Amino acid sequence: MATTGLTPTQAAAFRRKQLSAQQREELLKPFLPSELSETETRKKIRRRQSQQNASKRAHISTPIRTFLHIAIYHVVALLFSIFFRFRRAYRLARGKVVSLLKYHHRTPEFIAHDVKDLDKMPKHLSVIVEYQEDDESQGTAGLEGLVNDVCEISAWAASAGIPLLSVYERTGVLKNYLPQTHASIWNTLEAYFGPRRKPSLSLRAPHLSSYSPPNTPPQAAEPNGSDLKEERQHLTVLLLSEHDGRDTIVDLTRTLAEMAQKGDVRQEQINMDLIDAQLNDHVSCEPDLLILFSPTVQLKGYPPWQLRLTEIFHLPDNKGVNYQVFLRALYNFAKVEMRLGR
Amino acid sequence: MGSLHDSRIHKWFATSPPVAWTVRQLRELLIGSLKQGPVPQHVAFVMDGNRRFARNHHIETVEGHNLGFESLARILEVCYKTGVKVVTIYAFSIENFKRSKHEVDALMSMAKVKLQQLAEHGALLDRYGASIRVLGQRELVSPDVLLAVDKAVAMTAHNTKAVLNVCFPYTSRHEITTAVMKAVATYGTPIHNLPTPSKRTFSESHITQHLRKQMLEEDTEGGAEQPESRSTSPSPKDATSAEDGRSSSTSTAINSSDKDETQNGPTFLDPESISAQTLTDHMMTADAPPLDLLVRTSGVKRLSDFMLWQAHENTSIVFLECLWPEFDLWQFLPVLVEWQWQQKKLQEEQQRIRGRSKSD
């Protein structure tokens, strides 16, 4: 070292090998404060004790914090519940005003006028209606209320020129009354359109044969009926229930499993197209627009496969079937541009 | 709103220590108080609006995605702090491959870096004991990205408190198809059990027809004669065995069909035992609790092939107008509080029904 004429620090700077722990301590010693005196150690101990006390205080403060949290939780919940109530009241009032301004008067021309400016209409419209056991909210309970809702919606859809309407109702009670439902819808259409202009109607449910009486009422204007029939539109109403969702996919799986056991189908043959084609044929195609008449968006078991790109519309806090929801859904649908992941 | 750079004073104010401290304390307080009520166990997010945000603020699309990731980190923190067990995010749809190559590449390289960042020791996921799982069609991702993904998954595999499901190249229809395929595979392999034939809505002949059509398209490759020879024979026999299946003992009916089909008579699991639960167990989210809440930002009211099987029953679906990079506790809080409120209502209703049934 001496031969190169370097001070120890300079030598250290150029040294490549690691210093030992002892050497490093030596290196640092001049910069450290002197050894702790007696009093200082005592101070230090006291400080440590006070730190322990502080940590104890932190322990004590956890229940206080929990209490604070619970208090804030209840305050927030209270504030929001007041807010929700006011918002609901406001929305209901607004809804009432809108439904006063936009009423269909059970006339297809009014409805056609309302949707005249929309440049995009759903080809397949789907709605979710509810079967209410008890009459609590409105007079829409029981089977009668359900049939009434379905009839009204069908008439609106026919007036708006929508060719396919699927009605989802969880329990599927209406499927047991296909002929009666058809007659009810038929009557409602007659009330809207009049006997001569009313659209032809077929009622369908998955796994059940289509119900469309071929020559419905005999008084269907025979003399100039031929050219009238050309103009007359056709409405297909499809009744869906919970069974057409998961259960149907399960059914398909069972059938495929059975076929696989016989060797009729190989695993790699099962693909999206196969399932899609089967479900398309047996249940329904993808709806373009799904209207919910419930206050929140809960799909309640709607067939999942068909929901892929369906536009879902609901009016917040709305309860029950009414025309303005239907109309707003159509307006909303026309505004939205379709983006298929692009 | 103007460009991002206009709000410099606002930003300066928001990042000044006292303000930042207050906001942080407030967040902690709110999150802590949210914990006192019911908390959704499984939340899913569709992170929509990154590109629109970028367009609105005149920044690069990739930059928008970056901001979206920051937003995700914030929301994950909120979720895990409040006690959400599983968070599922729709990171990349199979449909997204249709976007420009530049953007897809950028997203992929972003996924590589960001997953690594999330998974690092002491980083967000480690702090909350969350493990990453990647759901989707792995074969569509390039191998280098896959390597990074696997590394991130392995790094967090030891965490058990929470889960982050990243739906990477994912569509729900593909998920359902895979689940059906797996179920068929399990039930299609011989096992010691007896099948019971019965009538169902799907006609086998119809499916065979479809398959045959598919086969015709692939006919040039050859090797498609096996199912045709069989398709005619099982249908009448099936009907008869279904008819006498109830009157006579099922075992005789099966034995006869087994003799017809194969000599050594392998037995299978009963396909009738396939239920919705079987398929649910084969979904990619099998071990997660049922989906409680699904949030989609940017005002698009569609599921877009996400969580169809999981979200079509009792999930609360919420569509928000705000864009994903703007999404934060302040947007999420009303959603959570409303969900808690609904949950409370639901409980009250159930109690009322129970009370009524008791009094009857």
Automatic annotation (TrEMBL), chain A:
InterPro entries, sorted: Nus1/NgBR (IPR038887), UPP_synth-like_sf (IPR036424)
Origin: domain of life: Eukaryota
Transmembrane segments: 67-86
Keyword field: Endoplasmic reticulum, Magnesium, Membrane, Transferase, Transmembrane, Transmembrane helix
Cellular compartments annotated: Endoplasmic reticulum membrane
Cofactor: Mg(2+)
Gene3D superfamilies linked to this entry: Decaprenyl diphosphate synthase-like
Annotated pathway: Protein modification; protein glycosylation
GO CC term (a single one): dehydrodolichyl diphosphate synthase complex
Annotated catalysed reactions: n isopentenyl diphosphate + (2E,6E)-farnesyl diphosphate = a di-trans,poly-cis-polyprenyl diphosphate + n diphosphate
Region of interest: Disordered: 38-57, 203-228
UniProt GO molecular function: ditrans,polycis-polyprenyl diphosphate synthase [(2E,6E)-farnesyl diphosphate specific] activity
Enzyme nomenclature, EC number: 2.5.1.87
Family: Belongs to the UPP synthase family.
PANTHER family hit by this protein: DEHYDRODOLICHYL DIPHOSPHATE SYNTHASE COMPLEX SUBUNIT NUS1 (PTHR21528:SF0)
Protein's UniProt name: ditrans,polycis-polyprenyl diphosphate synthase [(2E,6E)-farnesyldiphosphate specific]
Organism: Decorospora gaudefroyi
Automatic annotation (TrEMBL), chain B:
Source species: Decorospora gaudefroyi
Example of a GO MF term: ditrans,polycis-polyprenyl diphosphate synthase [(2E,6E)-farnesyl diphosphate specific] activity
Protein name according to UniProt: Alkyl transferase
UniProt keyword annotation of Zinc present: no
Enzyme class: transferase
Start and end residues of each stretch annotated as Disordered: 215-272
InterPro entries linked to this entry: UPP_synth-like, UPP_synth-like_CS, UPP_synth-like_sf
GO biological process: polyprenol biosynthetic process
Keyword tRNA processing applies: no
PROSITE patterns: UPP_SYNTHASE (PS01066)
Record's keyword terms, sorted: Transferase
Cellular component aspect of the GO annotation: dehydrodolichyl diphosphate synthase complex; endoplasmic reticulum; lipid droplet; membrane
Pfam families with a match to the protein in the record: Prenyltransf
Superkingdom of the organism of origin: Eukaryota
